[in-house]
Request: fold
Amino acid sequence: MRIDILTLLPELIESPLNHSIIKRAKEKGIVEIHLHNIRDYSTNKQKQVDDYAFGGGAGMVMCIEPIDLLIAKLKSERHYDEIIYTSPDGEIFNQHKANFLATKENLILLCGHYKGVDQRVRDHLITREISIGDYVLSGGELAAAVITDCLVRLLPGSISDETSALTDSFQDNLLAPPVYTRPADYKGWKVPDILLSGHQQQIDDWRHQQSEERTMRLRPDLLEGDE
Ligand code: SAH
Reply:
């Protein structure tokens, strides 16, 4: 998979993409992540990338031209399955959408800033709009980092134990069961006996029951299976 991230602030997103699972996935050639500074595509002498909103009002708006030039350049080099604008009014990101996007080969993530991008970018240049939740961030970089992290850990080979990502919360509409590690007894707080029993089938059944119980208690909406 290849992910191209278009931003005015590449520094904001570098660190989360250079550690742990994402770093290893890049090293193994499972994912390529390219950061592009939209400012490099400004044709203006001052390298301006934003301007006042037509009609007035507070806040700057990101201009269409540098974004168009950058997207056109990338599209001339390869086909993109989706060109995604991170936006608080987009479709809400969740595990189902992550599973779907993780099957794609080439993605563009466009990060907004200030008041967002000129509406014509949204009308003509992108294919999808994604929000990471009902709150407003100051820029799309953290949203792009969240989406990228979530997709990369789903790619085969990213996580050493391949079944691990599939047993995480939200797969099969269930929350993950509780997990424990050594010591088996800490200050009298004990690990459930079943996990120490060595009976794999019973352990699996227990974990499944715990998942169902937890989901029923904490997120009954997931069991309605509306997706
Ligand atoms: N004026 C806009 C908010 C702009 S916030 C509005 O009221 O809808 C600046 C940028 O941050 C946005 O362009 C978007 O790229 C990003 N952003 C903010 N909140 C986000 C969220 N919940 N999910 C994804 N991106 C978000």
